[in-house]
Design a protein that fits this description.
By secondary structure, this protein is an alpha/beta fold. 35% of the residues lie in helices and 14% in strands. It has a 20-stranded parallel β-sheet. A 5-stranded parallel β-sheet has the order 4-5-6-3-7. Strands 8-10-9 form a 3-stranded antiparallel β-sheet. A hairpin with a 5-residue loop joins β9 and β10. The radius of gyration is 41 Å and the shape is elongated. 39% of the residues are buried.
Amino acid sequence: MEAVAGALAVKAYDDGSKVVGFFQKKNDYVKDLKENYHKLKSELGKLQARRDDIEAEFNRDKRMQATRECQDWILRVKEMEIQVSKLEEKYNSKGKPSWKPTSWTSRSKLSERMAKKSEEVHSLWMDGIFERGVVVAKSVRPVEKIGAPNIEDKQSLQGAFRNTLNYLKRDKITRIGIWGALGIGKTAIMQNLNDNEEMAKMFDKIIWVTVSKHPSIEKLQEAIIRRLELSVEGTSSTTEEKAQRISEELEGKKCLILLDEVCQKIDLHEVMGFRTLQKDSKVVLASRSRGICYDMDADELIKVKNLSYDDAWNMFQKTVGDAISSPSIKRIAELVTNECGGLPLLIDRVARTLKKNGKNEVLWDRGLRRLQRWDSIKVEGIEEVLEFLKLCYHDLDEIKKGCFLYSALYPEECEICVDYLMECWRAEGFMDYRYEIKDARGEGHEILKELTDLSLLERTNRIKFVKMNKVLRKMALKMSSQRNDFKLLVKPQEGLNDFPKREEWEQATRISLMDNQLQTLPDTLDCCNLLTLLLQRNMFLMTIPESFFASMQSLRVLDLHATAIESLPSSLSNSIHLRGLYLNSCNHLRKFQFNIEALVKLEALDIRGTQISLLEIGSLRQVRCLQMSLSNFGMENPIEGEISNFNSLEELSIEVRSSKLWWDKIVDSVKKEVAAWEKLTSLRFCFPEVDCLELFVSTSPVWNKNSCMTFQFANDHPDSTCPQILESFCYLSNYSLKLVDGNGVNPRMLKQLMVTYAFGLINHRGVSRLSDFGVENMNRMLVCLIEGCNEMETIINGEGITQEVLKCLEHLCINNILNLKSIWQGPVYAGSLAQLKNLTLSRCPELKKIFSNGMIQQLPQLQHLRVEECGQIEEIIMESENNGLEANALPSLKTLVLLNLPELTSIWIDDSLEWPSLQRIKVSTCDKLKRLPFNNANATKLRFIEGHESWWGELVWEDEAIKQRLQSLCIFN
């Protein structure tokens, strides 16, 4: 019992001790409540301070962000703050009895929890010591989407976009320039590049920058730094430091840099810190100026053209909606679309404005009429576009502004001869007329280049001509109306029978009434400030009143060509400042009734096709540019010696379209007189024999001292089927030589051939190939026409040749050669024909092979191929001559035209070629051609297939899907 009692006593003692200990501990918690509270607050403060330091560290550098571990820790701190806050609320609570610390037990529990929480807070503070750091570099999004507009239904924009994509995929192309007029859609193309998924996969980063009107290095750097989310220490960092920082960020990354609205050259080294782009990085820039693209070393240029009418109409319809469901309004809307000139910006603004008219036909018609007159009135929706287009105009200097406004005198979309336009510019004083005409033409070409580079003027298919878009022309007329010194009266091609009213012309400084049906003119035109008067091609205008020019003392340009006038009145003597007089094709003009000696400043005179005798103009010794016809020497009694009076001439053109025998009577004396002139810089002349040409060259002091003299020599006046081909390609055709009805190779002619850029060989005998003239004499040749030389069997014989042949040739036209069997025979020396862009073959009935063995590999620049009426051609690219042909053969070919080839069965044997640049193919009367060399993967740029529907229906296809793909491109005729 004692043992049991002892055990129980011990147990009771232990239990009592535990109870006492328990209550003692609880009592300690109660006593330490306040201390534990303050300790918890202290630990929390340390934790929060640690958290704030970490956040400050990664917030200080925008390039950096918290590590994943650090982010999780910060979330735990946030949760801990909530838990501590709840304990603090219980400690401070006085209004809630269940939590009021009055009872001993509740105070003990609260104190205990605070003590444990303090340990947790301290532990969490310890976890906030990150040995590997708290920040890592922030990941920048590869691309920031802009929200690009849909351009799939706009062929010109989509074509430019696709071309840019293709160029971006080529390793050797690093810079691409997209250029075109303001409002043409360049930004839309750039936005589509930025948002394109394929681009996002190709590049690590896509950087978009809109360059401001007056860009600075600092602004461009700031835009790039924002895009890359970089932190550059200090607001006073230099541009060099920022460039270095950008360069470091982009190092090793494949980037696409998109620069929109580039208005002047940008040095990417100064902006981004590298002289050459990082490996595989690319730059695409958009500018209204082609020159800026060149200045920025663009490898490839893409011009954005105006929308076609169909694309413009589709865009207009989508913007306007069902308001044009009415047939009558639709007719008006179609005319409105035409007035917009294919400019997307203008189409959008006009469509949005007219959409407000609903289906009110009267308002639509009023809108059309106002749009047609917006050069003289304000029209809603137009003014914004006008202000936009003015940017280009205001960037021009005063001389270029004048040249641009002057070009608006001609009808919209009308071809304007460049040489003639420059003569008018010079006569008007836009170029310094004290210098030689050749220098003035050089200056004129610089002006013209800037205007065309800005798309203010456009080149036509005939390179020697330009035209002005109708919208830009209206802008020019509007701008001229705001200038007191450039008041224009412009009414060409308006069917006028009567001269405009006095209030229209009395303040004008320039008047254009060309291409009308005027029959009479006012008795006098009181325009003392008139500088230019253009009345050409008023075919019913037969007489000019005697006093018509009485007050035109300031007149500088007068164009009456292709009118029916028979004489010029005496009042023209008052126009003492006249510098340009154009009377060509005035077939009835026989005499001048005015004192021609009064025209002391006349420089340019054109009397081609008139009956004016040299005797009439013999006193005009100051004339510098004279264009005349053989008829001006006198039809019945040819005048000899009179042309010697014009020894101040710098440019002479004698048009020979009459009897060869008659020309032969006077050519020797004319040649001798012309050869003696020392100021001559340009001569267009017909020599009856090569010996006559050689004699002129050997005796002319100008020719021997001036290797830059421009010339167009012919030894006959043939009725060639392609008479203008030597002049249709480029300005360098002014160095042209045309041999007609000749025989063999005259050694005296080879010296002239060496300096010739455009060569025509027509109806020549005694040669079996062009290379008989010596390939070493053709190194400068750019254009070559061979026609009617029926003894030729090939153009070049490559046997024994050890140098490039026709290495600069760009255009080759072979026409009507009955015995021609090939273009090239024998080996092809590397580099031969390397620049050939256009090849035309017509009416060569024995020609069987176009691309001989090894020839096609030398044609990387060939863009246009036309084969017509060659009855023996069976294959365009012969398999037997081109074994192992690589898939990228003819990489630049854009158009392929095949006409009347009855034996043609194949373009190429299969679909293995890529045809990477082909855009258009035209086929007519090639009934045996049953297959096209295309599949679903090649010819990705093909946009048009022209041909007869019956021919298309008989084609054979390997896959119906290929037919479906191509059928959408067909234009049936």
